[in-house]
Amino acid sequence: MLCSHFVHHLRACAKLSSQSLGQKLHAQIIKLGLQQYGPLPNSLLEMYGKCGVMGDALQMFDEMPQRDIVSWASTLTAYNHAGLPRRSLSIFAEMWEHDRLQPDHFVIASLVKACASLGDVRLGKQVHAYFVRSPFYDDDVAKSSLVDMYSKCGFPHHARTVFNLIRVKGTVSWTALISGYAQTGRKGDALELFSRMPVKNLLSWSALISGLVQSGHGIDAFSIFMKMRKETDHGIDPFILSAIIAACANMAMLELGKQVHCLALALCLDSNLFVSNALVDMYAKCSDLLAAKSIFTNTRERDVVTWTSIIVGTAQHGQAKEALSLYDEMMLDGVKPNEVTFLGLIYACSHVGLVSKGRHLFNSMSKDYGIRPSLEHYTSLLDLLSRSGHLGEAEELLKTMPYEPDEAAWAALLSACRQHKNTKVAVRVADHLLCLGPKDPSTLILLSNTYAAASMWERVSKVRKLMSVMDFRKEPGCSCIELAKESQVFYAGDSSHPMKDQLLGLLKELDEEMRKRGYVPDTSYVLHDLEQHEKDLLFMDIVWAACMLHASKLP
DNA sequence: GTAGGGTTAG
Prior knowledge:
Blueprint: H1 2-16, H2 19-31, H3 40-50, H4 54-63, H5 69-81, H6 85-99, H7 105-118, H8 121-133, H9 140-152, H10 156-165, H11 171-183, H12 187-196, H13 202-214, H14 218-231, H15 238-251, H16 254-266, H17 273-285, H18 289-298, H19 304-316, H20 320-332, H21 339-352, H22 355-369, H23 375-387, H24 391-400, H25 407-419, H26 423-436, H27 441-453, H28 457-469, E1 478-483, E2 486-491, H29 500-516, H30 532-552
Antiparallel strand pairs: 1-2
Helix pairs in contact: 1-2, 1-3, 3-4, 3-5, 4-5, 5-6, 5-7, 6-7, 7-8, 7-9, 8-9, 9-10, 9-11, 10-11, 11-12, 11-13, 13-14, 13-15, 14-15, 15-16, 15-17, 16-17, 17-18, 17-19, 18-19, 19-20, 19-21, 20-21, 21-22, 21-23, 22-23, 23-24, 23-25, 24-25, 25-26, 25-27, 26-27, 27-28, 29-30
The structure holds one DNA strand of 10 nucleotides.
């Protein structure tokens, strides 16, 4: 009787994440000498795990005289909860070694979840294989976890296959699949499935909306958000709000972002860390750095994302020194940087040519914080070295780094060689690229121009042949700005704008002003067989966006 | 004792 009372209350603490109440119950249990009685050790373990007190959860586990499958499953959940999926996976082997226990469907579902959070589909498939051969192969919850894993790893097709095998499809299964479709940009599938979904809750709407935001369908995400507001009674929580703020950020829609900010204030959700982090990022991406800084300053409990958002935002607005001193402040504040922080910092160095500082940060990342540099970090360092003219070092890094450099990486170096007019390295890099069999049209243009500049006409014609056999279409570049509550999009070579004549006039004025001050456009990187006036016209496209920005500031 | 949504880069 007494025991089931404790089990019941401990479970409530686990659900509510109420650590202090849980500890009080634990104290009473010890006083009564019941700490090893019946299901209580497992209940205590579960409570500490779900409250995020990993140390105490593990102590419970270690002190158990006898561990059953539930003890192992709860430990797995605790590790998942604490964001330690690798530890979860190592349990798979330990269960058998220590206690001769085979994973059941509870354990399998948790293992799959660990694979999902690591984004490791290879391991996920192994667990899947184990599952279908186990006596639990028919369990719907484990299948649902597989749907989630395949969705998170970017394989919605596999997720669909498992989904179809679920006998009783609950809201969780539907949501997991819809999320997979939305995140991978399969808008049609996501919407179709969502409309067929029998019971929708706030999480289902949220999964669809945030998935669409992540795959760049901000407008659709917004209209679904409005639909939810209109047609349902679901409230707005910090999850959905931060997704909507991110949508404004990605589309650089400042006015809309401000309105969502007001919504956050009205709902008293602006003090939520996820919401304020999203706001810092939104204002920075919308070029209102002052507003971003003000949100940042007013955020009391700043975490690594808050700091990283302001550092990246500051760096992207050219204030590299300021970004670096924010990093110093962050360390004084005792916040540990993560891999994104370092990307922002190296980016900052890259844009003002702080080569040795950038190198130092790159090394500090692994030495001081144990973060293994990713391909992106190497690319960022490469960018720093090549922009600043350290071409030899950049080439060396490209060859020795622990990742296989792709076409874009080599092309970036080549482009830098041309900017620094280093023909010798340029030709060497170009030859290497040519061997790789380049596929990107802009790489081919770059190659053609490199060889043309070095008067290597045979290779020019070789590149031209490569161009002619492929479907040579380059996505046109475009710029987008918000002007009087409307978004204006301009494509390169676009001449359909109703204000074309006024715009071109202003553009010409700006161009003349630039030339007067000694800024002559460098058109040498444009395709070589264009006439000079055609090159100038192309250049006009490049300043088009700058011109529009200017126009938007006119009264 | 198991499964679904959120912020930072590219």
